[in-house]
Amino acid sequence: MKETIDLISQFLSAPIVIAALTFCWKWFKHKRDIDKAKMKGLRDTDKLLTEAVKALLHNKIYSNCTAYIERGFITTGEKDDLDYLYNGYSGIGGNSTGEWLYLNASKLPIREK
Q1: Are 49 and 57 in contact, with CB atoms under 8 Å apart?
Q2: Inter-residue contact 50 to 86 (CB < 8 Å)
Q3: pLDDT averaged over the chain?
Q4: Binning pLDDT at 50, 70 and 90, where does residue 107 land?
Q5: How far is Cα 48 from Cα 51, in angstroms, rounded to an integer?
Q6: Model-level pTM?
Q7: Do 98 and 90 meet the contact criterion of CB atoms below 8 Å apart?
């Protein structure tokens, strides 16, 4: 009789275990899908922010270098500032226009105002 009860309880508990495992699997799959969507959103945002920062750095390098080249000299402080701007710009994939301006401005004589 005890063996029969054990067999019946094992038979009845199997669907419960299967249902619990199915629920856990679906929950983890849903959580993974949500995490993938969040990561994609973060990557997209990171790309847009990088492009925005690159554009701002390019604009600042362009306007500063143009002014220095027209003036014919650069100060020590301006050169340091330009180095910081250019290092960030080139580090995130800035193009050759910014590099050309930076190199030309860097060759200017250093003079204090």
Answers
A1: no
A2: no
A3: 88
A4: very high
A5: 5
A6: 0.71
A7: yes
Helix (H) / strand (E) containing 112: none
Structure tokens at 50: 């990088």
- How many Å apart are CA 43 and CA 61, to the nearest integer? 27
Identity at 23, one-letter amino acid code: F
Q: How far are the Cα atoms of 1, 48, 62, 76 from residue 51, in angstroms, in the given order?
A: 75, 5, 16, 29
CA–CA dist 18, 15 (Å, integer): 5
Cα distance between residue 22 and residue 93, in whole Å: 47
Length of the chain, in residues = 113
pLDDT digits (tens, 9 = 90+) for 82-104: 999 999 999 998 888 889 999 99
Nearest-angstrom CA–CA distance, 91 and 38: 26
| Sign, CA torsion 16/21/22/26 | positive
pLDDT tens for each residue of 46-65? 999 999 999 999 999 999 99
> Rounded to 5 degrees, what are φ and ψ at 110?
-85, 125
